[in-house]
Batch of 2 targets.
Target 1
Amino acid sequence: MTVLAVTNLSRRFGAITVADNLSFEVAQGECLGIIGPNGAGKTSVFNMLTGNVKPEAGRIVLDGKDMTGATAHARTKAGLGRTYQVPQPFGRLTAFENVLAAAVFGGGAGHAAQHRARDVISRTGLKARADKPAESLPLLDRKRLELARAMALRPRLLLLDEIAGGLTEAEVHELVELIQELKPDVAMVWIEHVTHALSAVAERILAINFGAEIASGLPDAVMRDPAVLEIYMGAVLDAPA
Ligand SMILES: Nc1ncnc2c1ncn2[C@@H]1O[C@H](COP(=O)(O)OP(=O)(O)OP(=O)(O)O)[C@@H](O)[C@H]1O
Ligand SMILES: [Mg+2]
């Protein structure tokens, strides 16, 4: 069942094109990977999906409902969760309090929200650090917390923005396992430069440059696509963290 359908999404910032007639779909239990060089427009596409940036053209349909003009708040209520390229927790609040705030925002109240928050904390492997202030957590746990906060919203659609960036190989491996566990519950779009992690999870990959699609399809085929290789031109796709 299709959760997200994007058609002909377009947007420029002055002379910079961040989305050039992009179309893609994601179903529940499925992950679409997005790759592209720095500045290609990946995060801007997420900002249009979340309602933080207005597209100049195109349609965004979530669960059959046209959300193109909806506020960011309405989209969150409709089941959109996202993680940020730079983790953005409430630093002074504990990990648990951060997740609880998201659970309450996602429509839970009282015991139900507490239960949901505890469940997500334990699913994301944060139990031992639940009572630590978010700002004191190491990077992997802050990334887990990003995921936990997004999951606490009960998302239908989960947008992950470079969640593996900056982690060691062993940490990337842990994160991939966690994402695999969460995957059946949601439709996922994952922007990632750590392409071997992405290939392990995504059914399909969309490669963009200057906001335009340059290749899409099965991960292996996209990674070998001459247009993709040319853009990365020796830039090591799997640069160590
Ligand atoms: N609100 C904005 N106003 C003006 N320019 C913007 C805005 N948001 C992004 N840009 C520009 O659009 C281009 C694409 O940025 P974006 O953050 O979408 O790239 P990205 O593909 O996510 O890159 P990275 O891999 O480095 O995260 C950049 O040149 C950026 O400076
Ligand atoms: Mg980005």
Target 2
Amino acid sequence: MTPELQGKVAIVTGAAAMLGRAIVRAFVQAGAQVLAVDIDVPRGEALAAGLGARCRFVACDIASDAALDALVAGALGTEGRIDFLVNNAVVYGDAGLDAARADWLAALNVNLVSGAMLVQKTTEALAAQGGAIVNMGSVGGKFGAAGRALYPAAKAAILQLTRNQAASLAPRRVRVNSVSPGWTWSDALSRMTGDDRALADRVGAPMHPLGRVGDGDDVAQVVLFLCSDAARFVTGADIPVDGGFSMLGPDQGRSARDWFESQA
Ligand SMILES: NC(=O)c1ccc[n+]([C@@H]2O[C@H](COP(=O)([O-])OP(=O)(O)OC[C@H]3O[C@@H](n4cnc5c(N)ncnc54)[C@H](O)[C@@H]3O)[C@@H](O)[C@H]2O)c1
């Protein structure tokens, strides 16, 4: 059942790409007014044009404090309130252990610090509504991966930061949770597969017991749930939206006997 968010206002960052668009669409369908935030102006404007009056695109670099101040002031000026914040924007560039200091700081700035700044700048408005924040985690923040460091370190930090934010803001009745997708059909997966969804599902199936990669809307519905009144007593939690990816160990859920028999 779609939650009823009529009259409520959501800010969604990283809104112009496939996953962000799915989140924006889900909030619009639930009746919310959405400020869709991104640096990608053509795709952001196309998104807003397709969704009508309930979605407004705001061109904003979340790494700029001045831009975040303008975003929050603009939201309060035009909408009069902010109920939900979804910190979804990301940069994937990651040279792993070879990354220079400047690369580390740039990646953490967008992937971790900017969301924290936006939480800080929206706290008053969210507290006035008993609002909710959802930070985007990832299975990438939970397991080792050769060749990567910047992205997974930021994602792991987000899961911890979510708990700190939740504890700090609970007295003000602002709930803070995270969502951790597995492989999700997105711009990145589309590029890697030559836009072949069946290939993505086939390669992803052994890692995702439900047998496919995720859809943006699989993630969006859980974000929506966490912002809805149905989740009114949920804070400081991480919800995996990964088709079972994170419940498996390296044995992929198969017993030793099963592995040995399959080698015989
Ligand atoms: N795609 C997946 O398989 C997957 C898996 C797990 C978690 N996630 C998480 O989901 C979220 C979305 O991922 P995605 O795959 O859609 O990423 P993406 O790279 O396709 O989209 C990210 C969006 O963020 C925007 N952005 C980047 N820097 C920005 C800035 N400084 N200011 C404003 N906007 C900025 C980009 O323009 C882009 O539209 C991320 O938090 C990611 O970690 C994705």
